[in-house]
């Protein structure tokens, strides 16, 4: 009886330890499985000077800069941070413009359809949005028809020619 209780206690402790490790590992992973960025270092919330200072400090901890090196590295980081901020702003404006263009194109397309076609188009659009949301959340169902079609067409099959095998040998 003592051996049974001891083994149950030991297995419970091991299980609790493994569960704790897994929960700690998930803290730094975002919803879609990518590694989450630290909130302190998001570009849109910091000025170029703050970003350059953070990057320089982070490098200084590992590399132990002299005062002269620190000033040079800070100036390089500041230039890069300014470029990054500019590119980020340009990208945001371009994305907004692209969304507007797509909306106008979609409206023109809907106007050229008859009411029955409009209904089918809107249902299809809603289904695509649903699939997109599911893909982001990781709950997207496997599309069997696409897998079977690709298999029949030979896509995904790796074929190596005899010449390639001879060259690599």
Give structural attributes.
single chain, 169 residues, mainly alpha, flat
Write a structural description:
The chain is mainly alpha-helical and 169 residues long. It has a domain at 46-132. Helix content is 75%, strand content 0%. The protein contains six helices and no strands. It has helices at 2-26, 48-63, 67-111, 115-137, 144-153, 162-168. Helix 2 crosses helix 3. It is flat, with a radius of gyration of 28 Å.
Q: What's the total count of β strands?
A: 0
Radius of gyration: 28 Å
List unreliable stretches of 5+ residues.
none
Morphology call: flat
Classify the helix fraction into a percent range: over 70%
* Sheet with most strands: none
Give the terminus-to-terminus CA distance. 62 Å
Structural class: mainly alpha
In N-to-C order, the SSE pattern is HHHHHH
Please report which band the strand proportion falls in: under 5%, 5-15%, 15-25%, 25-35%, 35-45% or over 45%.
Answer: under 5%
Tally of helical segments: 6
Mean pLDDT, all residues: 75
Oligomer: single chain
Explain briefly what this protein structure is.
By secondary structure, the chain is mainly alpha-helical. The protein is built from six helices and no strands.
């Amino acid at each position: 009886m003592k051996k049974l209780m001891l083994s149950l206690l030991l297995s419970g402790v091991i299980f609790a330890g493994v569960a704790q490790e897994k929960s700690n590992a998930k803290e730094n992973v975002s919803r879609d499985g990518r590694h989450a960025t630290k909130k302190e270092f998001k570009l849109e919330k910091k000025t170029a000077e703050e970003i350059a200072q953070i990057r320089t400090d982070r490098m200084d901890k590992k590399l132990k800069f002299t005062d002269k090196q620190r000033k040079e590295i800070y100036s390089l980081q500041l230039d890069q941070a300014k470029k990054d901020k500019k590119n980020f702003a340009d990208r945001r404006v371009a994305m907004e413009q692209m969304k507007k263009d797509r909306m106008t194109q979609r409206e023109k397309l809907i106007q050229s359809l008859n009411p029955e076609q409009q209904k089918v188009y809107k249902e299809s659009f809603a289904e695509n949005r649903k699939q997109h949301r599911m893909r982001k959340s990781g709950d997207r169902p496997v599309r069997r028809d696409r897998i079977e079609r690709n298999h029949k067409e030979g896509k995904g099959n790796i074929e190596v020619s005899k010449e390639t095998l001879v060259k690599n040998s």
